[in-house]
Amino acid sequence: MLVVNRFRVPETDAVAFRDEITRAHALLADQKGYVDGGVGRNVDEPDLWVLMTRWGNVGAYRRALSAYDVKLGAVPLLSKAVDEPGAYEDVEPGTDLNIAETRWLG
What GO MF terms are annotated (predicted)? Predict the structure, then answer.
């Protein structure tokens, strides 16, 4: 599963935000089920940042958000994200998408 969190950050806060988002990413990357991810800054709108993470499954992501270190060091940053859906299913050939039923959380 892919998680995309976007942030609007004034230029005057960019240096401090870079440190904060980098620390948050490192905390998430230490969690079980983390596959890969990264931090980016938009080339056309430099006040727009992204934290992208990929997880083995939705359960791994949800458990990561419940970890003590993540609650203290990453969740406060994540609460500042642009208010939009950010969790995505991987689209692979032959899979059914957006099934309206309880899913396996891993």
Answer: monooxygenase activity
